[in-house]
Structures are given as C-alpha cells and as structure tokens.
Amino acid sequence: MNKSLLRDDVKKLIKENEENSEFVILDIRTPEEHRQGTLGESINLDFYQEDFFQKLGELDKSKLYLIYCRHGVRSGKTFEMMKKLGFQEFYEMAGGVASYTGKEM
Predict the structure, then answer these.
(1) What is the secondary structure of 1-22 as a DSSP string?
(2) Of 20, 26, 65, 91, whose CA is between 20 and 30 Å from 77?
(3) Contact 85, 57 (CB under 8 A)
(4) CA distance 50 to 54
C-alpha cells in the first residue's frame, strides 16, 4: 500500500510496527532539522543533497517505510520518487511532522 496517512493512522502504523525490523521511519529533513528532534528511531536522508535520488534508490525496496519532513512538501515529492523507483510499501505523513506533533521540530 502506498498512500498519505493522517496523524491517527501514523500513530497506528508506528505502534503496529514497533518490533518490526523491516519498518523504517525515513526523515528527509536536513541534518540540522533532524537534530532538533526526530520521530522514533528514524534515519535521516537529506532531501536537499545532490545525490538524494541516488541514495533513496539504494534503500531496500522490500521494507516498509514511513517518510516525513517538516510540513509534507518534501515527503510528497519523495513519495512520487519512491513510486518510480519501485518501492513496494511506503507511506507519507500528510502535513509532515509539524502536523503530527503540533509543533515545529
């Protein structure tokens, strides 16, 4: 399944996959934004890096991904990239981490 999730669905997805080693939370904000606070045990892949698309394509396409950024713009673009790259199951956090936490992170 590939779609955007709202806050409650994001919480449910994270809760259901707490022990799933095949579940990856992908923070595509800048390293500076990432240092200000993350969602769970996320990995950081900076959307603005020149080689972002290449690095995204190197990720394991069979894993389950939740992607997020600050407000949802970068994650929306990444969502489309992941479709083109052949990822099997991934979700985008609608509105970004700001809508999820209710604050800028």
Answers:
(1) -EEEE-HHHHHHHHHHTTT-TT
(2) 20
(3) yes
(4) 9
Domain ranges of the chain: 2-101
2-101: CATH topology:
Oxidized Rhodanese; domain 1 (3.40.250)
86-105: pLDDT as tens digits? 999 999 999 888 877 766 55
The whole-model pTM stands at: 0.90
Token representation of residue 49: 């890096």
Answer yes or no: are the C-beta atoms of 60 and 43 closer than 8 Å: no
**Residue 40 token pair:** 């769970």
Residues in the chain: 105
Distances (CA, A) of 78 to 15, 47, 81: 23, 8, 5
Sheet strands (E) in 1-105: 2-5, 23-27, 43-44, 64-68, 89-93
